[in-house]
Structure formats: C-alpha cells, structure tokens
Amino acid sequence: MDSIELFVPGRLCLFGEHTDWAGRYNEINADVLPGKAIVTGIDLGIYATAEKCETFELSSLDEKGNVVTFSCNMDKDVLREKAKETQFFCYACGVAAYLLENYRIGGAKIDINKVTLPIKKGLSSSAAICVLVARAFNELYHLKMSISGEMQAAYRGEMLTKSRCGRLDQACAYGVAPVCMEFDGNEVYAEKLSVGKNMYLVFADLMAKKDTKKILSDLNRAYPFPQTETDKKIHEALGKDNQRIISEAVDAIAKGDTAKVGSLMTEAQKIFDEKVAIGCPEELTAPVLHSVLNDPKVKELTLGGKGVGSQGDGTVQFICEDKLKQAELVKYLEEKGMEPHAFMLPAGDRVRKAIIPVAGFGTRMYPETRFVKKEFLPVIDQNGLAKPVIMYLLEELEEAGIEEIIIIVGEEELEGFKEMFSKGITEEHIKKLPESVREYEKKIASIGRKLKFSVQKERRGFGHAVYQAREHLGKEPVLLMLGDFIYKSNINLNCATQLIKSYQKSGGKLTVGIKPVELENVVHYGILTGSFDDRRSYMMSVTEMYEKPTVRYAKDHLATKTPKGKEYYCTFGTYILTPDVFDYLDEDIRKHDETGDPSEIQLTSALCRVLEAKGMTGALIDGKSFDVGIPKAYAETILKYSEGK
Fold first, then answer.
1. β-strands 526-532, 569-577 pairing
2. CB neighbours (10 Å) of residue 367?
3. Residue 408, class by beta-carbon neighbours within 10 Å (0-12 exposed, 13-18 middle, 19+ buried)?
4. 3-state class (DSSP) for residue 402
5. How far is CA 166 from CA 171, 185, 272, 309, 310, in A?
6. Burial code of 478-489, b = ≥16 C-beta within 10 A, e = fewer?
7. Which pLDDT does position 405 carry in this prediction?
8. Tens digits of per-residue pLDDT, 354-412?
C-alpha cells in the first residue's frame, strides 16, 4: 500500500446535547438514566492522504489557510509531551501516542490537503482530526479496528491533550450519516441510523458569544444527586424527556418524515428552555438564539429548529422541507449577518437490492437438472402449497423490503425466466384454482415487477456470476442469497431482515450471515472466526474467513470462544456485499484475463480482501437454512421444511 486517501467530516448534534456527560453519572447514581443523542456527520470535513514512514510527519492548513508542518520521532513519551502543548498538531500527537502504546505500529506521514470544515464553530473539528489520524494508522497497519474502535482511539488520544472533548464528538467516524449514541456510565454505544429520504438542514454561527465552560460547570452541579427543584428538572430533561425524543426521532429519520423531525427539534428546544436553561440562565437564556428561532421568515422557511451543542448564543440548526427552501434560508441568514452552512443527510444504509445467482448447471442434482433447474424444484410450505425454491427466496426478499432483485441467469435461460414472471396463466386456469390460492398468482406478478436479469455468458466461478449484477448496483450495498438454500426464521423477523438490521448496526460493514456448525462438518463450508460483541451477542467481529478448511486447521485456528466454550461458525448462505467487494472482483477478473489464468473467480477471495482492509461482521441468524442443492439434503428439506425442523 503506497498511500491511502481519507475523508472525515465534522459532526453536528441533532438531539441530546449534554447527555454524554450526564449519562456518565449513572455509575454513581443508578437513578440517572443513560444519556442518548443523535449525532450526524456533515458533508464538510477534512481530506488527507497518508503513507507509512519511519517518523510521525504531518502537514496541514491552519485556520488562516497557511501550510504548517510538524515532525517528530515515533516515541510515546515525545508524543505525549507534544500532545500537552497548545500547538496546532497536539490532537494528532495524542492519538498517535495512544495507538503506539496499544498497537504494533510504525510511523506515518499524513498530508491534510483540503479543509472544508469551519474551525471552532461547534462542529468538533478537533475530533475530526483525531478520527482521521486513528483511521490513517488503522488502514496503513491493518489494525482491524472497527468504527467504534477508531472512535475510542480518537477519544483517548484527545484526552491526552488539554482539550476536554465530549464523548459524542467522535461520531464523525461514521461519515455523513446520523448515529444514535448511548452513554451508560463509562460505556459508549453507537448505532448508525437509516435515513428514509434526503433531509435538508442548515446550521449557522449566530456571531454572538457564549461561555461553554460556565454552562457545563453550572449544569454539572445538578449531578450526581439532585438537590433542588431545578436539579430535578435538569435530570428529567436530560433523562426520560430526552429518551422519548430520541426514540421518536430515530423512527422519524428512518421513515424520512422531515416534518416530524422538525417538530421534535422545536419540542426539544422547548423542553431545554423550560427545564435546563434555568440551571445557567446567564448563558442559556440566549436572546440571539431565540430571536432567530422565533423570526417569522425563518419559521416560514423551516420545519423546526433548535440550538446546537452546549446551546446558548453559539450555533443554531434547522431542517427544511426541500432544497429550495434550504437555499432561501441560507440567503436570509447571510443577510442577517450570520454564517450559515447547508448540508444534506442523504437517504442511505437502506439495503434496497438483492442478487440471486441461478446460472449454474446444478451438477450435484444431475440428472434432474437436465430437465428442470434446481431453483424450480418444489418444496411444500406449512400451508400445504407446493412452491418452487426460487419463490421462497423472492418472498423472503419482498418481506424484507427489497425493492429490486437481480437474478443472474445463463444466456440460454434469460427468455424463459422473463416469460415465467411476466406472462400470467389463462383465466380458464385461474378459475380451476381453489380460491385460497388464486391470490398467489397476483403475488407472483407483483414480485415479477421487481425483477431484473443479468446474464453470465461464461461459467467462470461463483464470484464471476455475482459480479454480473454490478451494472444494476451503482455504489449501493446489496443482499446476496444463494439459490441452493431456503430459510425459515425462529423469530418474527425473517432471516433476510435479521441480516439487514445487523448490517445497519455494523456501521455499513460487509456482513455475512453465520450459523453454528459441528467441528466434523467444517470441511463443507466457509468458516468464520472472531469475537462476539458484548452488547449485541449475535454480532461477530470477524478476524478470519477460510473456505472449507480441514478439521485440524479449523481446530487450531478457527475456533471462536463463547460462554459455552469453543464453537465453530459457517456461512448461513446470506451476505450483504459492500461496493468494494465488486471492486476486488473486477481486479481479479482483469488479472485473470491479462494472464490467461483458467481458474475460477471466487467470491471468498474478494470477501477476504475486504476483511483485511476494512473488517467484516458476522451476523448470527436466529433461524434455519435448508439445503436444496444436494439430493440427500433436498430429501430432508422436503420432509422437514413444512414443520420447521
């Protein structure tokens, strides 16, 4: 790796200011509820390139736009001393010192070549620098830190400086996306949120003054135990009131309900004014802030707004109905002498598309597959309907909210597939069907409208088949389901939905469905190992993935420690692939073409490269997978599926 490119945005606290420090008092007073906040990265930030070197070198633009440089040895004592200074690079030194003490790393040269993030405007530019340095070392030295690991390194590094950053500042590690954070004592949990549709926001420097240190000092007097009625109101506002607001806001953001988000901003400000501002009236009465919030023109252009960060006459934020009103608001605030910035929360982290590869011949099911593809083999459901395997997969995806399904077919199969899902049966045949199943014909037609097809002209391996869907994907994540399995969930979320939710909680990492497997059977599967999350025991941070290992290799290298002892986990047959998987497949295909390599293009090799570069999440699916690709397994599926055994 010669060099890497990095971007880390600034962050804005949409809801839940002050709850990061308030939630910490839960360790002293159990009646203090965990703090919760919704924090988002914005599309303004810090751009850099980084490469390995023997020392620690940085160059950047200072607040005046001048190029400044810094260099020192990779020595933890030197870095710690530099972190305590007030020089421009103290934050970077603090993070480098923390990482050097806790990881095996060398030096790094980091060139910050572009800064679009306003400095000292309540957007946590210092945290962005800290996350950027943590990410540079993480990627250069393959430390395999998760996003939460990068956040932890950034926070610990900044704590080595004279800064006393908030615990929500490092949410910028999640990129331009909202994150719901929970602060329970000293524990910090973060979950990336799905945005239902594009949301248009504006934040603005009020060009007034506030004393953040006084605000924090005065409000902290209400903790850990409330002594006065004012203290009780502060606890209430930052506790149960805030938790309700956060819960409703998470739901509104997921649905893309901008009007609801706006009304919640206005309500959150009202609660803050009535219950928190009284704890520091000199700063939090905030006449400038409230004059802007109550401006008739501002109200006309926005759906709601509130103060930012520690509140007071510092910064204000608004949400607008559309881009046009956002632009009008920016212009109006500029005319009023403020410094506004527009940004958008893009709809994303929704998994809208899926792939089902069915182009294979089905060698293991020959001679049956000479006449009928295995995807059309019948399986009886719990209602007694004989449905083809592919309909089970399509129904699963539709129930999970998938909007577009790409089926990978052989060239000779394309027209047959298209006709099957576009041409209905005759009215005469419909009349012969029992009324209980006539609706199913409509369901087939409905699902058929979601289908697109890609052709695999050459049989060059499973990875090559999956790659054929790329033309339909853009840069979106995609759910991959194998055509050899059907699934049945043990809970009220189907298996595909469980995987999607795990992907969203992973922070957008490549996510593979997994299930336990006996040691003697590992030779038949792709095996993953790693460690399970203490809080979400169904999510594994994967450290290694190995295709069909020997029993000896699995026993020596692939066991996962659990409360039950050593266990083994194999792929469940479902994956959420990130765009970089297709980048690696593209590289593999080009390399094979250039060298004339006749070997197959494997998906596993691309997955392992993503694991090495960015990490992977294993999602333990609460359900069963039923094999239809092997004669004996298919016979068992026929017997057991309808009973869910």
1. antiparallel
2. 6
3. buried
4. coil
5. 10, 14, 19, 10, 10
6. bbbbbbbbbbbb
7. 92
8. 999 987 767 777 787 787 777 888 888 877 788 888 888 999 999 888 889 999 988 88
Provide DSSP, 240-297.
IIHHHHHHHHHHHHHHT-HHHHHHHHHHHHHHIIIIIGGGSHHHHS-HHHHHHHT-HH
Q: What angle do CA 104, 108, 113 make, to 5 degrees?
A: 145
- What is the side-by-side strand order in the sheet with 199-205? 304-307, 315-320, 199-205, 339-345
The token pair that represents 110 in the structure block: 């980091």
Return the HEC string of 189-248.
EEEECCECCCEEEEEEECCCCCCHHHHHHHHHCCCCCCCCHHHHHHHHHHHHHHHHHHHH
The pair of three-digit structure tokens given for residue 365, joined into one six-digit string: 């099911």
Amino acid at 255: K
Mean pLDDT of 162-173: 80
Q: Is the pLDDT of residue 1 over 60?
A: no
Report residue 122's pLDDT band, with 50, 70 and 90 as the boundaries: low
Average pLDDT over residues 462-483: 88
Count of all residues that appear for the chain in the document:
645
- pTM given for the model: 0.65
- Name the phi and psi angles at 345, rounded to 5: -90, 105
Measured distance CA(554)–CA(529) in Å, rounded? 9
- As a whole number of Å, the CA-based R_g of the chain is 28
Q: How do strand 378-380 and strand 304-307 relate by DSSP bridges?
A: unpaired
Q: Which of 379, 579, 576, 585 is nearest to 486 (CA)?
A: 379
CA distance linking residue 65 with residue 319, whole number of Å: 31
Closest CA to 570 of 581, 580, 559, 561: 559
* DSSP 3-state of 65: coil
Q: Please, what are the domains in the chain?
A: 1-16+38-191 (3.30.230.10), 194-347 (3.30.70.890), 353-643 (3.90.550.10)
Instruction: State in Å, rounded, how far the first CA of the chain is from the last one.
Output: 49
Say if residue 72 is exposed, middle or buried (CB neighbours under 10 Å; 0-12, 13-18, 19+). middle
Coil, strand, or helix at residue 502?
A: helix
Instruction: For residue 403, give the H/E element and its range.
Output: none
Structure tokens at 132: 């950027």
The span from the CA of 328 to the CA of 301, in Å, is 7
CB contact at 8 A, 278 and 302: no
Measured between alpha carbons, how far is residue 37 from residues 277, 289, 319, 542, 626 in Å? Answer: 18, 21, 17, 28, 41
Residue 246 CA to residue 243 CA, distance in Å, equals 5
Tokens of 548: 């069909």
Give the tens place of pLDDT for each residue, 226-261: 999 999 999 999 999 999 999 999 999 988 899 999
- Structure letter (DSSP) for residue 348: B
Instruction: Yes or no: say if 269 and 293 are a contact pair by the CB < 8 Å rule.
Output: yes
Q: Measuring CA to CA, how many Å separate 383 from each of 141, 379, 397?
A: 54, 11, 19
Neighbours of 383 (CB within 10 A): 10
